[in-house]
Amino acid sequence: MRAQFVLSEISVGLRRNLTMTFAVIVSVALSLALAGGSLLAREQVSTMKGFWYDKVQVSIYLCNKNDASSDPNCDKGAVTSQQKQEIKTDLEKLDVVEKIYYESADEAYKHYKEDFKDSPLADSLTADQMQESYRVKLKDPTKYQVLQTAFSGRQGVQEVQDQRSLLENIFNLLNGMNIAALCVMALMLVVALLLIVNTVRVSAFSRRRETGIMRLVGASSFYIQMPFILEAAIAGLIGAGFACVLLVLGKYFLINNWLQQKILLINFIGWDAVIKVLPLILAVGVLVPAAAAFITLRKYLKV
Q1: Whole-angstrom Cα distance, residue 152 to residue 232?
Q2: Tens digit of pLDDT for each residue in 138-176?
């Protein structure tokens, strides 16, 4: 096979269908950028889960005298010193418990004043209205049900609250956004594939005379198809290259120079996650258009 001939055919094909080739490049770039963004978003959610779940605590709120008339869990009255000691002893016996922190009503009131100092309700509360609690750090945050089963409904316990449940809504929202991005990516990829198919069909039709002559002189099907396949692969590679540029720019400007400055509580993904995705984007950008062109040619390149 003469490489010069194949390269000249590729050049001719790209020039003849310049508009459609440009559309293929843009579609591939957008679809692969969304695909890479979705993979990075999934990695970000996993990173956030690992970071925040490690800091999750289970709070065991104890009854105070104000809860006796308003909460059925505290109908026996405020928690006693003996009940508090029994709760602490039972917590220390559990294998899933890593650390136990006790927060008195005065400490809870102080923390509330610090956290909600701008709230109009801050001045209306007093220390005796706040609840004592045990804050429990678990070795495995997913074992929350062990504490829920052991202490819910127990005398002196008003509520067992898992902070992990407060984070689930955020993570569900992020996962939903990730699924939406994947759906848009799939739609864009379908559009790109349709454009590739049409581009290959138009290119094959416009060069049907040349391919007919090549067939008559004994050229193999692979030799005839190679320029068309490489045209699609080159367009896909260019689109994948633009997608990689978009991902790198998004990481640099959106995450490094904006989100990390604005949101200090989130541990964002690093460059290693982005670099790990780029080769996959390039490989898909080359292989998918080439495969689409190959399948199309088997049907439409009949000479």
Answers
A1: 63
A2: 887 777 788 888 888 888 888 888 777 666 777 777 778
Give the integer Cα–Cα distance in Å for 60 and 15: 71
Predicted pLDDT of residue 268: 84
Give every residue of the chain whose pLDDT is below 50, as ranges. Answer: 1, 303
pLDDT of the residue at 46: 77
For tokens 């062109």, name the residue: 293
Question: At residue 274, what is the residue type?
Answer: V
| pLDDT at res. 131 | 84
3-state secondary structure the chain: CCHHHHHHHHHHHHHHCHHHHHHHHHHHHHHHHHHHHHHHHHHHHHHHHHHHHCCCEEEEEECCCCCCCCCHHHCCCCCCHHHHHHHHHHHHHCCCEEEEEEECHHHHHHHHHHHCCCCCCCCCCCHHHCCCEEEEEECCHHHHHHHHHHHCCCCCEEEEEECHHHHHHHHHHHHHHHHHHHHHHHHHHHHHHHHHHHHHHHHHHHCHHHHHHHHHCCCCHHHHHHHHHHHHHHHHHHHHHHHHHHHHHHHHHHHHHHHHHHCCCCCCCCHHHHHHHHHHHHHHHHHHHHHHHHHHHHHHCCC
CA distance 192 to 77: 68
pTM: 0.66
Write down the pLDDT at residue 152.
86
Q: How many CA atoms lie within 13 A of 82 on its CB side?
A: 1
